[in-house]
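Protein modeling request. Please complete all fields; requests missing the sequence field cannot be processed.
Requester role: graduate student
Desired output: 3D structure, token encoding
Chains: 1
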Amino acid sequence: MEEQFILRLPPAVAERIERLLNDSSASSEDKNLDMVFSEDGRTGTFVIGNDRFSSSLLDLPSVVESYKTYDDNVLIKTADIGQMIMVREESDVVPEAVEYRHGLTPPMRDARRRRFRREPDLNPEVVRRVERDLQNIMAGGTAENIDILLSC
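Delivered output (152 residues):
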């Protein structure tokens, strides 16, 4: 498995990096790319050329699988990705939570709340009673406090 991450950039910065990767005659000042994280490991600074952008390491609401192909026919899984580095411009809002609630695509908007089931609220006494009843039934007996009606 390879080590991979998702880097989410503002559109202007993404275009700048794409030009840098595709154009071999790019200026030397733009070729300076750096990512530095602070002591907490969650916030940091992304540097491209002389420009600095704040960044955050965020957990995704679900695991994303990454694949690659060598022959355009067979896909090979290369990694499970559970975190994303989000680079922000100065005017963008700083995320307060450690988890990015919205996933990577529009259908995953607020995914944790909308798509994943919450733990049911169970009364421990009911669970103990059902456990006892199941053990009685498996031992050849009947459940307690149950009336059996036979109809013909």
